[in-house]
Amino acid sequence: MSAKNKLTLSVQYADPRLQESITRPKIRKWVQAALFAPAELTIRFVDAAEGQTLNREYRGKDYATNVLTFAYNEGEEELPDDAPTQADIILCTDVLEKEAAEQKKTVEEHTAHLIIHGVLHAQGYDHMDDEEATEMEGIETEILAELGYADPYA
Question: Buried-most residue among 30, 68, 75, 145 (CB within 10 A)?
Fold first, then answer.
C-alpha cells in the first residue's frame, strides 16, 4: 500500500470473543496490506445469529457465512479517482472458528485471510468465474505470504 492509500477504519466486536486476540492493530495491518486505494472500512465481528440474518436478508441464503462484504460505492460511475472505497466487512466468529479448526489453521491465520478477502471484494475483486477466482486467490496468497502466513489454498 502506498502512503496515499489513506485508511479510515472502524472495528466493531458485536461478538466480543476475538476482541483480545484479533486486535485492532493486527486488523489495520491486514487491511492496509490489501488496499490499493484510499478506503473507509468497518470490520464487524458477529455471532451466528446476526451472520445468518444478514446473509438471508442481503443474499437470500439462510445460513451464517464466514465473511460478507458490503461495498457501498461498487459500480458507481461518477466517483472521483481519489474517492475512497467504502465498505462494511462482516466476519462471523462461529463460522471462522469452525473453519479454522477444520482446515487446521489458527484463528488468526484464517481471520487474516478472510479480512484480506473482504477488502479485495470491497475494491471490486470477485470470484464468480474460474479466471476471477484464480486472480483473486493469487492476490490473497501473495499478500498473506508478505505478512508471513501460509498459502490458504494449499
Answer: 30
Q: pLDDT tens for residues 82-118?
A: 789 999 999 999 999 999 999 999 999 999 999 999 9
| Pair 68, 119: CB distance under 8 Å | no
Query: What is the C-alpha separation between 118 and 114, in angstroms, rounded?
Result: 6
Q: Smallest Cα–Cα separation from 112: which of 101, 100, 127?
A: 100
Q: Kindly report whether the global pTM for this prediction surpasses the value 0.85.
A: yes
Helices marked H in 22-106: 24-34, 48-59, 93-102
> CB-hemisphere CA count at 13 Å for 152?
25
Binding-site sequence positions: 117, 121, 127
The CA R_g of the chain, rounded to the nearest whole Å, is: 15
Distance from chain centroid for Cα 42: 10
* Grid cell in block for residue 145: 505470504
Q: Which residues are annotated as a binding site for Zn(2+)?
A: 117, 121, 127
**Structural contact between residues 8 and 40, judged by C-beta atoms closer than 8 angstroms:** yes
Which of 50, 93, 91 has the alpha carbon at shortest distance from 70? 91
CA angle 135/138/144 to nearest 5° reads 140
